[in-house]
Amino acid sequence: MKKRIVTLLCTAVLTLGLTMAPAMASGGPFYPIKVEEYTYGPLDELRINKVYQLSLSDDPSGIPTEDFVRGGRQYYLLDMIKEDEVGVDTQDYTDTITVDSDTNDLSKILKQLDAHREVTTEDGYTGLLALDYTSVKVEAKGYTTNTRSLSATRTYPNLSDADLDLIPKTITDGGKTLTLGAVEWSGGENGFYTATATYTGTSSTRAATGYTVTANYTGQVAKTGCEVVTYTAIFGSVELAEDEQEPEASSQPEPPAPDTTPAETGTGPNLLPILGCVGGVAAVAVVVLWAVQNKKIGRRERT
Asked: What does the longest C-alpha to C-alpha distance in the chain come to?
């Protein structure tokens, strides 16, 4: 019976704990990140400060404010102080810009770019970034082709005849190949001719129509915002009377629980019921045997 009572009590305690758990989890309970004990005032009143840190979404009603007993004194809430702690979130950030240029000379382009750049991101971060000179790139927007005419003159003296076959049909001038055009002949009185040949050709070059410059500004941006709320619960105290103080735990060992096992005798605790049963059976057997014998003697006397 005792075992069943204990089992029922344990079941009730567990059920109560499970029922209360969701209610306690809503808006708390919160646990202090720091506990300070100190004396206050001319009377050296013992006080305790409990410091809690909550997020903006937490409900401060979950902070414990009930009285409690500690060291023979009862502590009660005097005040609750709230402080908003301003936090700064810093992130690495890169801002890429694109500008137009009429030259691809990097030294000239770098002079046109600012060394620093202030930025504000879409989510409210601000900062001063520095130009990353190694990131500067120049690309042509497009190209156009320019063509110009080339011309060169060559003189060939002491020719045996005024024959075009004696004159080269092409020449190379300035790395360009030119083709024979007009030829003027002179001489012939002494049997030799001089040819003055004109060679012509064209040269084409590609020119950029403009340039696009990209550059990265790198650094850190920061955003300031209130993300943590600090609550300080201040507890004053009064000394309790001796009869109001909680009894201190005794250092003496608890007396052993009474042994419910029957004391052993010469035949052992479990032999007594057995012996009683055996004695009763033996008595019944003696009475039955006596009755049977009396019946036999009566029959003999009648015969």
From this structure: 206
pLDDT of residue 156: 95
Tell me: the pLDDT tens digits for 67-121? 999 999 999 999 999 988 776 778 899 999 999 999 999 999 999 999 999 999 9
As a whole number of angstroms, the distance between CA 128 and CA 89 comes to 15
DSSP string, 22-76: HHHHTT-----SEEEEEEETTTTEEEEEEEEEEETTS-GGGS----EEETTEEEE
Question: What would you report as the CA-atom Rg of the chain, rounded to the nearest whole angstrom?
Answer: 58
**In which residue are the tokens 């009869």 written?**
243
Q: What is the pLDDT of residue 15?
A: 34
- List the one residue out of 137, 135, 139 whose CA is nearest residue 216: 135
Query: What pLDDT does residue 215 have?
Result: 97
Query: How far apart are alpha carbons 237 and 221 in whole angstroms?
Result: 48
**pTM of the predicted model as reported, rounded to 2 decimal places:** 0.38
217 burial (CB, 10 Å; 0-12 / 13-18 / 19+) is buried
